[in-house]
């Protein structure tokens, strides 16, 4: 299982994370399955963070997420990942992240403190590290 993130999306993701800091940012990644369990992201959709405690957790605006999913569908894309930032680190899912992960897709975490980008699957609350491929790797 691997997720390929091209440099244009990596740049957009970090820009979104920096714009929202010290709040966590959240967004969706649309793309294509790339054979086996791999996927390639080709589009990034920033979403509003509606969490009441946005410096520690995220809650994607469900209306924004629905619009992003519809835009993907219209463009022939599927949801290949969700991302959010940890303004103070670490590049590891928090217990809340693991507990609330609802989609069977890679979760990308941008750690602004160390500038690390990491991806995980969160099946049943247990983080499984994924290979993240691209210019940041
Ligand atoms: Zn988190």
TrEMBL record:
Name any Gene Ontology BP term: proteolysis
- Example GO molecular function term? peptidase activity
Q: Which residues are in the MPN domain?
A: 2-136
Name the InterPro entries for this protein: JAB_dom_prok, JAMM/MPN+_dom, MPN, VirAsm_ModProt
Task: Tell me if Metal-binding is a UniProt keyword of this record.
Answer: yes
Superkingdom as given in the UniProt entry: Bacteria
Q: What is this protein called?
A: TtuB-protein conjugate cleaving protease
Which species does the entry assign this protein to? Deinococcus carri
């Amino acid at each position: 299982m691997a997720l390929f993130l091209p440099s244009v999306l990596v740049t957009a993701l970090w820009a979104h994370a920096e714009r929202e800091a010290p709040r966590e940012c959240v967004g969706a990644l649309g793309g294509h399955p790339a054979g086996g369990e791999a996927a390639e992201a080709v589009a990034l959709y920033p979403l509003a963070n509606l969490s009441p405690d946005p410096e520690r957790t995220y809650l994607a605006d469900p209306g924004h997420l629905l619009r992003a999913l519809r835009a993907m569908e219209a463009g022939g894309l599927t949801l290949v990942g969700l991302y959010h930032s940890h303004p103070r680190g670490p590049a590891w899912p928090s217990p809340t992240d693991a507990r609330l992960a609802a989609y069977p897709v890679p979760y990308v975490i941008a750690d602004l403190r160390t500038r690390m980008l990491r991806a995980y699957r969160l099946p049943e609350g247990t983080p499984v590290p994924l290979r993240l491929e691209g210019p940041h790797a």
